[in-house]
Amino acid sequence: MKKIFFLFAALLMLSVVSCGPSREDQEKQKRISDSLFEKERNNALDNASKLLADTTVTDSAVKLNTK
To answer: What does the DSSP 8-state code read for residue 22?
Structure first.
């Protein structure tokens, strides 16, 4: 009876491990998340560049008005 129980327990553990996502699925998900991160990073960089450009223009105008 013990042998059957241990065999059943071993098969159960193997079935749980095999139910996880495959390596291909993990890599595909990583590529998708990386591409989304890249889009967000590019948008953030564009917004930062616009903000810096606006600040530079404003600072220049303030310097011209104070002279």
So the answer is: P
pTM: predicted TM-score of the whole model, two decimal places: 0.43
Q: What is the dihedral of CA 41, 43, 48, 50, to 10 degrees?
A: 160
* Side chain identity, residue 13: M
Digit-coded pLDDT (tens) for 26-38? 899 888 888 888 8
Beta-carbon contacts of residue 21 (< 8 Å; ≥ 6 apart): 29
Task: Tell me the two tokens of residue 33.
Answer: 């998340």
Report the chain's terminal Cα–Cα distance, integer Å. Answer: 96
Q: Which residues of 2-25 are buried (b: 16+ CB within 10 A; e: fewer)?
A: eeeeeeeeeeeeeeeeeeeeeeee
